[in-house]
Amino acid sequence: MSTLTLETELIVNQVTVSDEKLIVDLVDGRSLSIPLTWYPRLMHASPQERQNWQILGDGYAIEWIDIDEHIGVEGLLAGRRSGESQHSFERWLATRSASTS
């Protein structure tokens, strides 16, 4: 089993969220493109909520405060999907639906 060894620091420069993809541009020039289906909270967020992101710390993660989503850049690079359980996501979705009714 091998482990991920990083040769450069992963620092977020820009984030773009469309209806289908999360695109993260890093300061070293790389861009990561991830299917939005990997992050159900982002997928169910409004366009305004998707655009309300901020970079955490020294650029190691991205936060969407409106939907309580935090995604680490190292996890993106390693191909990790959301680790949220289906039960937790359904509870969050129900709470959202109740607050918009």
List the defining traits of the structure above.
101 residues, three-stranded antiparallel β-sheet, 4 helices, NE0471 N-terminal domain-like
Overview of the structural elements:
The protein has 101 residues and is α+β, with helices and mostly antiparallel strands. It has a single domain (12-100), classed as 2-Layer Sandwich (NE0471 N-terminal domain-like), CATH 3.30.2020.40. The chain has helices at residues 40-44, 47-51, 73-78, 86-100, and strands spanning 12-17, 21-26, 31-35, 54-56, 61-64, 69-72. The strands form two sheets. The protein has a three-stranded antiparallel sheet with strand order 1-2-3. Strand 4 (54-56) and strand 5 form a beta hairpin. The chain is elongated. The chain starts with 11 loop residues before the first strand and ends with a helix. The mean pLDDT is 90.
SSE class: alpha+beta
Which strand order do you get reading across the main beta sheet?
A: 1-2-3
What is the terminal-to-terminal distance? Answer: 49 Å
Number of strands: 6
Give average pLDDT, whole number: 90
The CATH architecture designation is 2-Layer Sandwich
Count of the separate structural domains: 1
CATH class: Alpha Beta
Strand content: 25-35%
Q: Treating each run of at least 4 consecutive H or I residues as one helix, how many helices?
A: 4
The quaternary state of the protein chains shown equals single chain
Low-confidence stretches: none
Shape: elongated
